[in-house]
């Protein structure tokens, strides 16, 4: 049984290496992003939205990663310091709380942030788009 397990492990490792070479086309992989945050929004109805925000370079699954990265950069990577002034954006005065969380790292510094906004629109506006997903 141990021999089969060892052979299987070597086979899986070899397959992963081959796949990596094929995917990368023999080129060196790009440098990892300087910042990576797992973001979540827990809505009052129990649904949860999740996304990943990568910065420097901007990317991940966040729909407006460049805008969100710029907002965080302006706030020094501190979600609690995000600028909540986005002119021309009005939100309905509907009380439907969302609990927003950000966990990961910003330029090597750990980030652990949780807050509650009155609704999803305010989460987007008051976070400069970081929680706009």
Describe this structure in words.
The chain has 133 residues and is α+β, with helices and mostly antiparallel strands. The chain has two domains: 1-30; 31-126, Subtilisin Inhibitor (2-Layer Sandwich), CATH 3.30.350.10. It contains three helices and five strands. The chain has helices at residues 2-24, 65-74, 120-126; strands at 35-43, 48-55, 59-60, 98-106, 109-117. It has a five-stranded antiparallel beta sheet with strand order 3-2-1-4-5. The longest helix is centred in the N-terminal third of the chain and has 23 residues, at 2-24. Residues 1-27 have low confidence and may be disordered.
Total number of domains: 2
Name the beta content range: 25-35%
Characterize the overall form. Answer: globular
pLDDT averaged over residues: 82
Helix content: 25-40%
Low-confidence stretches: 1-27
CATH topology of the largest domain: Subtilisin Inhibitor
Domain Subtilisin inhibitor: 49-119
Family: Belongs to the protease inhibitor I16 (SSI) family.
Keywords: Disulfide bond, Protease inhibitor, Secreted, Serine protease inhibitor, Signal
Pfam family, one: SSI
């Amino acid at each position: 049984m141990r021999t089969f397990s060892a052979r299987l492990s070597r086979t899986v490792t070899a397959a992963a290496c081959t796949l990596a070479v094929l995917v990368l086309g023999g080129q060196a992989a790009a440098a990892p992003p300087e910042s990576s945050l797992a973001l979540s929004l827990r809505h009052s109805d129990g649904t949860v939205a999740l996304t990943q925000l990568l910065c420097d370079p901007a990317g991940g699954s966040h729909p407006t990663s460049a805008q969100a990265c710029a907002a965080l950069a302006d706030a020094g990577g501190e979600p609690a310091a995000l600028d909540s002034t986005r002119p021309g954006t009005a939100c309905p005065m509907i009380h439907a709380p969302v609990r927003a969380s950000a966990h990961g790292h910003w330029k090597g510094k750990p980030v652990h942030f949780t807050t509650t906004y009155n609704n999803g629109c305010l989460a987007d506006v008051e976070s400069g788009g970081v929680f706009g997903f």
